C-alpha cells in the first residue's frame, strides 16, 4: 500500500526515522536552532557592546581571545556568527510561514473549488511565478525602509507560488476520493469538508514543503543582505558577508570573516533541504516506485527493510 | 398514477453531461445522455433494485437523487413535495431524509478519522445532538444497529483497522445516525468478499423490517436483487426498460435485455442446461443514443418497427409488471 493511504504523523515519524536524509537534516537544523536560541550563553562576546578598537583589532586573525578572528569593526567573528544565526532563522521561519500560509490557502481554494476560482487564482500564481523574484525583492526592499520586518514581508509575499502549485495538485487528488463525496452526501458544507477532510490530508505535504521554503527564505535573506539592502544594525550572516566584502575583508586576506557566515548559510540551507526532501520522500507517493514495478530501487528498498 | 405512499418519485428525469471539450472556445453541441427520461416510484418501506450494466446511468441517478448532480430536466418528489430545485437549507433538510451507502468501503471513510468521529459527523453537521451524552448515545445506537456490537470497542478505531464488511457497516451506521426515510445503496456489496455480501444485504433487509426504511438498491447483479428486493427496475442507457415485482421480472422477463441479463446468471445445477443469450457488441455510446428503441442495435429479436419508434413502458399481463418493448405493447398487431 502506498504511503499516503494512512498518513498520520505517527507513520511519518516511523518512516522518517529510517530515512537518513530526514534525520541528518533534522539534526543540522536542530543544532542551528539551539545555537540561535542560546546565543547569549554560547557567544564569548556581546556583538552590540561598545568597543575600544585599535588598528590591530581590525581583521585580526584567529587567536586565543578571538577564535575566529575579528571583523572590520574589531568585533569577534564567532560571536557575530552565533548571533547572526538568530536573524537568519527568524527571517527564514517567519517569511516561510507567510509564504506557506498564502500558498496553502490559494492552493487549497483553487484545487477544491475548481472552475473559475481556480483559473483566476492559478493565473495570478503563474504571473507571480514568472516575475523574477530577486530583482522584484530588491526593488521592494529598496522602496520600503530596510528593516527586518520588511525583509520578512517581502520574502514571504513573493515566495508562495511553489507551495500554491503543490497544495493545489494534492487537493485535486484528495477531493476526488470517495469520502469527500460521502461528506457531501451527508450534507457537510464546503468549509467543513475543507477543514475535516481535505486539509488533514494535505497537511503532511505542507509541512515538508515548509521546510524547503525555509531554506529558500534564508538564502534570499542572505542575498538581500549581501547586496546591502538589509537593516545595517541587525547582523545576519548575509550582512556579515556584505561587510567583509565591501569593507576590505578580501584585500586584507581576512578569510575568517568570509568563510564562517558562508558556512552557516550552507549548513542551515543544506539541513532544511535534506529534511524537506527526506520528508517529501516519505510523504509523496509519486516519488516512490509502484509496488508492481521491478526496478533496482525497489529491490534495494526491500533489502534495506529486511535488516533489523 | 395513484397518489399513494410513494416516498420518492422521479418524473421524466434527465441528466445530460456536455461531451468533449469545455471552456470558452468549445461549442457543446453533444451531450452524454446519462439519464434519459427516468420515471420511477419508491414506495414506503420497499426495497427496489435498480439493475443495469455499467455506464447505464445507475450511479448518476443516485447522485442526482442526493442533490449532488443537478437534473437537466424532470422533477424529483419526496413525500409529495417537489424537491428538484432547492435552496441550500432545503437540501440540507433533505439530506437527513435521504442517505447514501457507497460502493467502495475502502475509499469512502476518511483514513484519519476514528469510527466514532465518522459516525458522529452527520450529527455535528446537522447539529442534531444537544450534548455529548446524547451524541455518544446516538452514535452507539447507530453502530449497533449496523451490526457493530459492542459499539464502544469500535469508537476509537481507525478505518484501516477494520475489514471491508465492517467498514461498510460503518458507512451504513453513519447514514442511519440521521434516521433517514430512504437509503440509496450504490452497489453496496460489489467490493466485498462473497462471504460478507449476504451479511450486508441481510442488514439492509433487517433495517427495512425494523425501521420501515425504503431502500433503492443499485446493482449490476440481478441475483443480488432477487435475494432482497420487492421490485426490480432494469435500466438500459439512461432509461427504465422493465419494471415489476421481483418474482414476475425474474421468472418471466418481458424485455429482451432483461432476458439476456438473466440468461447468463449461473445456475447451481450442472445438469440443467440453459441457452445463454450473449449480447452482441458494446453498449452503444450514450452520446449518440440509437433512434427508435435504444436497445435495437443489440436486440436478438429486433423488428422493423424498433428501428423507428421508441417504445414506452407498457403493462405485461395483469400485475404491475411493465416493459418498454414492442413485443409487449402489441408490436405484432401492426404487422
From TrEMBL, chain A:
PANTHER family for the chain: D,D-DIPEPTIDE TRANSPORT SYSTEM PERMEASE PROTEIN DDPC-RELATED, OLIGOPEPTIDE TRANSPORT SYSTEM PERMEASE PROTEIN APPC
GO cellular component: plasma membrane
Membership in a protein family: Belongs to the binding-protein-dependent transport system permease family.
Residue ranges crossing the lipid bilayer per the database entry: 20-43, 87-113, 120-142, 148-167, 198-219, 254-276
ABC transmembrane type-1 domain mapped to chain residues: 85-276
Gene3D superfamilies cross-referenced by the UniProt entry: MetI-like
Domain of life: Bacteria
One record GO biological process: transmembrane transport
InterPro entries: BP-dependent_transpt_permease, MetI-like, MetI-like_sf, OppC_N
Name by which UniProt lists this protein: ABC transmembrane type-1 domain-containing protein
Pfam families, alphabetized: BPD_transp_1, OppC_N
Topology within the bilayer: Multi-pass membrane protein
This protein's UniProt keywords: Cell membrane, Membrane, Transmembrane, Transmembrane helix, Transport
UniProtKB/TrEMBL annotation, chain B:
Annotated keywords: ATP-binding, Nucleotide-binding, Transport
The ABC transporter domain, residue ranges: 8-262
Pfam families per the UniProt record, alphabetical: ABC_tran, oligo_HPY
UniProt xrefs under PROSITE patterns: ABC_TRANSPORTER_1, ABC_TRANSPORTER_2
GO molecular function: ATP binding; ATP hydrolysis activity
Keyword Transport part of the UniProt annotation: yes
Alphabetized InterPro entries for the sequence: AAA+_ATPase (IPR003593), ABC_transp_ATP-bind (IPR050319), ABC_transporter-like_ATP-bd (IPR003439), ABC_transporter-like_CS (IPR017871), Oligopep_ABC_C (IPR013563), P-loop_NTPase (IPR027417)
GO biological process: peptide transport; transmembrane transport
PANTHER family tied to this protein: D,D-DIPEPTIDE TRANSPORT ATP-BINDING PROTEIN DDPF-RELATED, TRANSPORT ATP-BINDING PROTEIN
Family: Belongs to the ABC transporter superfamily.
Name assigned to this protein: ABC transporter domain-containing protein
Lineage, uppermost ranks: Bacteria, Bacillati, Chloroflexota, Anaerolineae, Anaerolineales
